[in-house]
What we know:
Layout: E1 6-7, E2 11-12, H1 13-35, E3 47-53, E4 65-67, E5 81-85, H2 89-98, E6 106-109, H3 110-114, H4 120-129, E7 132-136, H5 143-147, H6 149-153, E8 159-161, H7 168-177, E9 179-181, E10 188-192, E11 204-209, H8 217-233, E12 242-249, E13 255-259, H9 275-285, H10 287-301, E14 308-309, E15 316-317, H11 327-338
Parallel strand pairs: 5-6, 5-7, 7-8, 10-11
Antiparallel strand pairs: 1-2, 3-10, 3-12, 4-9, 12-13, 14-15
Helix pairs in contact: 1-8
Amino acid sequence: MAKDEIIDNHVSLHQCKLAINALHSHESKKQERREENELLPAEAPLVWLNVTVKRMPNDSKIKPIRIPVVHPIVDPRTSPVCLITKDPQREYKDLLEKHNIKFISRVVGIAKLKGKFRSFEARRMLLKENGLFLADDRVIPLLPKLLGAKWFEAKKQPVPVNLARKDLKKELERAISSTYMNQNRGTCMYVITNYCITTYESLSYSAIKIGRLSHSPAQLLDNLKEALPAIIHYIKDGWENVQNLHVKTNSSMSLPIWTCSLDDEKEGRWAGLTMDDEQDEADGSNGVEDSEKSEPEAMVTSPPKTVEIESGKGKKRSPDQKVDEDKPKKRAKKLRAAT
């Protein structure tokens, strides 16, 4: 039997091949059945690589990380590419023409984002019409507020590019032919194979495109082999922080391709976790109970507070409040004077 090839010294290539072939075959049949009842062909379903990590990252990053793939995710011939630039946008349109760049479908300046695309409906249409967004790296900090949350929910954050490069065409081609990892808070990372995302789980750590269902299983496998080492490289602590890997589509079950050992050895599930850590976690979980128990004890040991009640009104008074003892006598004098 031939020796099984290992990806990045951890993941079995044979196991990946089995999972991708089974997933591709099952989802392709479902897609064919759906298209029989549809007038227009639907977009290819998403394929995900779920990467579950052991420890949650401390922060989230807006700027996506570039990940190489063999077979590009976005084809500018079928998926429009939009470039967001500084003002004036006409200057950058002329720059694209100068470098004979014809795969950019639309150029949008910051002023146009604030004006023409200010309304929610206009921004939603811009998001829907384009498969990929590139942006001048100098305007990236302005975009979260201008674009809104929908861009980040759809994982279509603009990819930063350097428009000052001498070989601008190569810079833009490299940006389009790569995929990207968006680091978010959570313990699960999703790797996607299409450019249209519908739903996410609450533990989403990141989403990285590695292909489409329209790709062949061999092409998906090539993209996985190329992207996985780079993905692990950008995860804090690398393989020591990875718990398991799965592949799936939006509606399918997750198919495992790798999982860490459930022991305390190096890269194991409980590696580095000591009895003191477990005791600290237990003490932390009982903190609320201890505080709740201490409150009744404090009530027992503290002396009871006396309360004075004014006759006729039923108002409670603390010991610090002074009661006017002459008040009933004054009332009686007024009554005698009135009679």
